[in-house]
């Protein structure tokens, strides 16, 4: 009798496991429509959708009836419509020290009468650090390296720039190593290529960063992630920020970031129509801070988006992105010249 | 097996495939069991095609002719190499070859369960499905340690440690399909031992000429940890002349190089589990994969876990087929309604 009971229990365990395997495999192919179990999921989804709709209806209603008294509504609306773009005015207002320089737009090369010769391209992550990984297994580190190499080919064709990559292969490279490389190679400008990952949203966003304090908790979290490989202590950090204050770098980086972002976004939008401009932002990324020349970090695509991931797997799309980055860099460099 | 399944058994061939970094095996419901080393080679050019006489070669044959082949080990480091279409192609070829080895009779439908390294399952799910779907009518992909556990009836409160070539996969079973927290993968496995052994040997015998493949054969023949009385001597050419070399210490050092990480990960997995059931898990640790053949490994692990209380570590009887047998069992037990045509 006991053994029979035992057997029965084992059968039950076995059944749950088999069902688990089945559901797991359904999830892999990303379909749940004609499965046996999935009907329940569909039902749940429907209920959820109805709930959401009714909530929206309620909020809209509240909008008309109670107006500004309904504070919660204001908060939601504020979250949705909030413009992430930081305008140049905003920045100048925040950083009084740089206001003097702002009146004098133009690149460093113009101020010092120097020419930009060495461009350092930094493919994000690498080696043991894969960066983000798309749903189909595409790894950020491979894409960034490929785009960086394409960008180098393009820039070399101009014949007047010396291009250095922080990594040529799939190797692990700490962030401060990248920084020391930029200094050792006497880079004139520095661009770090990354890809975004937004687990909850199926959209493609383009954004570019330059170094600066940030109050946005999301950006801070992102910075924390991207800084994870650095071995700098807090005191080094403070030192570096002070050093930064003495340079023109901030303003230059901002200009640089704007031209990168503009070229990336306008072109990608033209190509797919489904891209969001998250604009130029400031964030305390270690790679941007340590490098003493104009430096930006571009998030060129969004790997959490399945379509985008598929597209990134085609060489032509990566070539396009390299093309846009090239255009952004040239734009920035030309701006100084044209105003001379 | 349910009645419906018995009825159509004739028209369906169930296969369990263990797709490994170093060796892949297949077990099928018509009682064939075959294995092949996970190497795929394509002739480099027209001349090599003439020499080898086949468009694609596998396993030992591919290794033997490797000088005239583009050799590919599709799942190096436990995942399909990114961006190289060749790797995906190689997976496809291996699957095709394995299914051919199982000799399905004409018109038989093939229902396959494929066990892959845990990392592959995480990273390359779709690629694996794509590679297999051409040759099977219905298909499920599971992680290797899970297939082993299922095959050995270790459905509840057990820990399977699958020491493969590219990765060592840990998997805790607690009566459901293991989630990501129940699994862990470390890169200290067979290939890592090979690398260590290679560098130790080149350090000790700088004049001797040997390659990675020879080193791997030394390891497979002699691997051990702890103490062993016999001498280990192998012939390695020096200036073209075969000379006997003592490699016992190097073998031991190389094999023992994976132990710290192995013990650490094992204790971590146990500690992560519900404290009430930790004792049960400790008495149900199973070593699988080629690494479980390292002599003294089981004893060493059991010994080093002693301070965490009594525990028992066992090894699977047949590491080569434990995965594919488990996958086959899974395929046979799977209710027919779960098999969906691709």
The gyration radius over C-alpha positions of chain B equals 21 Å
How many individual domains of chain B? Answer: 3
Helix percentage of chain A: 55-70%
What characteristic shape of chain B results from the CA principal axes?
flat
Indicate the structural class of chain B: alpha/beta
Q: What's the topology here?
A:
The complex is a heterodimer of chains A (about 350) and B (about 350).
Chain A lengths: L1 H28 L8 H29 L4 H11 L6 H7 L4 H4 L5 H5 L5 E6 L16 H17 L5 E4 L9 H10 L4 E8 L8 E7 L5 H10 L7 H12 L3 H24 L3 E8 L2 H5 L4 E8 L3 H7 L2 H25 L1
Parallel strand pairs in A: 1-2, 1-3, 3-6, 4-5
Antiparallel strand pairs in A: 4-6
Helix pairs in contact in A: 7-14, 11-14
Chain B lengths: L2 H6 L3 E7 L4 E6 L4 E5 L2 E4 L2 H7 L4 E2 H6 L4 E4 L12 H17 L7 E8 L1 H6 L1 H9 L4 E6 H8 L4 E8 L4 E7 L8 E4 L3 H15 L7 H11 L10 E6 L2 E6 L1 H9 L2 H14 L5 H5 L2 E4 L8 H8 L8 E3 L3 H15 L9
Parallel strand pairs in B: 1-7, 7-8, 9-14, 14-15
Antiparallel strand pairs in B: 1-2, 2-3, 4-5, 4-6, 9-10, 10-11, 12-13
Helix pairs in contact in B: 4-6, 7-14, 8-9, 8-10
Commentary on this structure:
The complex is a heterodimer of chains A (340) and B (342). Chain A is an alpha/beta fold. Helix content of chain A is 57%, strand content 12%. The longest helix of chain A has 29 residues, at 38-66. The longest helix of chain B has 17 residues, at 85-101. Chain B starts with a helix and ends in a 9-residue tail after the last helix. In chain B, a hairpin with a 4-residue loop joins strand 9 (156-163) and strand 10 (168-174). Chain B contains 14 helices and 15 strands. Helix content of chain B is 40%, strand content 23%. Chain B has 3 domains: 3-150 and 321-338, Nucleotidyltransferase, domain 5, CATH 3.30.420; 155-188 and 257-316, Nucleotidyltransferase, domain 5; 190-256, 2-Layer Sandwich (Nucleotidyltransferase, domain 5). In chain B, helix 4 (85-101) packs across helix 6, helix 7 crosses helix 14 (319-333) and helix 8 (190-204) packs antiparallel against helix 10 (248-256). Chain B is flat. Chain B has a 5-stranded mixed beta sheet with strand order 3-2-1-7-8. Chain B has 342 residues and is of the alpha/beta class. The chains are: A alpha/beta (340), B alpha/beta (342). Chain A binds chain B through residues 10, 13-14, 16-22, 24-25, 28-29, 34-36, 133, 136-139, 142, 146, and chain B through 79-80, 82-83, 123-127, 129, 139-142, 150, 153, 155-156, 175-177, 330, 333-335, 337-338, 340.
């Amino acid at each position: 009798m006991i053994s029979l009971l035992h057997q029965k229990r084992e059968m039950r365990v076995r059944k749950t496991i088999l069902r688990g395997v089945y559901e797991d495999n359904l999830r892999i192919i990303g379909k749940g429509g004609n499965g046996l179990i999935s009907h329940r999921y569909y039902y749940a989804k429907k209920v959820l959708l109805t709930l959401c709709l009714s909530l929206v209806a309620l909020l809209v209603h509240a909008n008309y009836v109670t107006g500004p008294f309904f504070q919660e509504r204001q908060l939601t609306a504020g979250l949705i419509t909030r413009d992430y773009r930081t305008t140049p005015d905003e920045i100048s207002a925040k950083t009084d020290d740089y206001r003097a320089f702002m009146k004098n737009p133009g690149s460093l090369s113009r101020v010092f009468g120097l020419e930009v010769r060495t461009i350092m391209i930094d493919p994000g992550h690498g080696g043991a650090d894969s960066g983000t990984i798309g749903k189909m297994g595409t790894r950020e580190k491979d894409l960034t390296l490929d785009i960086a190499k394409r960008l180098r080919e393009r820039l070399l064709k101009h014949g007047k720039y010396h291009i250095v990559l922080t990594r040529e292969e799939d190797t692990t490279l700490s962030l401060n190593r990248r920084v020391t490389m930029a200094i050792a190679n006497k880079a004139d400008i520095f661009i770090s290529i990354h890809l975004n990952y937004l687990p909850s949203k199926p959209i493609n966003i383009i954004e570019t960063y330059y170094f600066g304090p940030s109050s946005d908790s999301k950006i801070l979290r992102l910075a924390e992630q991207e800084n994870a490989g650095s071995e700098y202590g807090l005191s080094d950090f403070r030192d570096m920020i002070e050093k930064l204050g003495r340079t023109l770098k901030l303003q230059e980086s901002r200009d640089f970031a704007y031209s990168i972002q503009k070229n990336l976004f306008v072109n990608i939008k033209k190509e797919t129509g489904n891209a969001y401009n998250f604009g130029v932002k400031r964030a305390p990324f270690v790679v941007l801070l340590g490098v003493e020349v104009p430096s930006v970090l571009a998030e060129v695509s969004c790997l959490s988006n399945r379509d985008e991931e598929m597209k990134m797997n085609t060489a032509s799309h990566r070539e396009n992105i390299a093309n846009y980055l090239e255009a952004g860099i040239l734009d920035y460099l030309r701006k100084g010249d044209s105003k001379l | 097996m349910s009645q419906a399944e018995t009825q159509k058994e004739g028209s369906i061939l169930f296969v369990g495939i263990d797709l490994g970094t170093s060796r892949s095996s297949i077990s099928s419901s018509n009682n064939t069991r075959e294995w092949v080393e996970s190497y795929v080679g394509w002739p480099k050019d027209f001349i090599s095609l003439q020499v080898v006489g086949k468009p694609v070669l596998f396993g030992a044959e591919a290794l033997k002719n490797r000088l005239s082949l583009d050799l590919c080990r599709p799942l190096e480091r436990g995942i399909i190499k990114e961006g190289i279409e060749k790797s995906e192609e190689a997976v496809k070829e291996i699957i095709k070859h394995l299914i051919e080895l199982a000799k399905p009779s004409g018109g038989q439908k093939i229902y396959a369960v494929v066990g892959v390294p845990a990392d592959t399952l995480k990273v390359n799910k779709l690629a694996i499905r794509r590679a297999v779907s051409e040759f099977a009518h219905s298909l499920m992909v599971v992680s290797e340690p899970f297939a082993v556990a299922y095959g050995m009836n270790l459905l509840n409160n057990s820990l399977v440690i699958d020491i493969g070539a590219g990765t060592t996969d840990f998997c805790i079973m607690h009566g459901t399909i293991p989630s990501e927290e129940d699994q862990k993968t470390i890169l200290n496995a067979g290939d890592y031992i090979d690398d260590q052994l290679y560098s130790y040997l080149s350090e000790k015998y700088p004049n001797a000429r040997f390659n990675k493949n020879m080193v791997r054969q030394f390891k497979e023949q002699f691997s051990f940890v702890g103490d062993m009385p016999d001498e280990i001597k192998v012939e390695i050419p020096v200036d073209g002349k075969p000379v006997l070399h003592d490699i016992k210490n190097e073998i031991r050092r190389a094999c023992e190089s994976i132990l710290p990480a192995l013990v650490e990960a094992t204790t971590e997995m146990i500690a992560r589990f519900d404290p009430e059931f930790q004792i049960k898990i400790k008495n149900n640790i199973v070593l699988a994969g080629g690494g479980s053949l390292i002599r003294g490994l089981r004893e060493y692990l059991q010994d080093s876990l002693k301070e965490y209380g009594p525990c028992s570590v066992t090894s699977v009887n047949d590491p080569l087929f434990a995965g594919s047998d488990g996958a086959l069992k899974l395929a046979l037990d799977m209710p027919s309604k779960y098999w969906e045509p691709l």
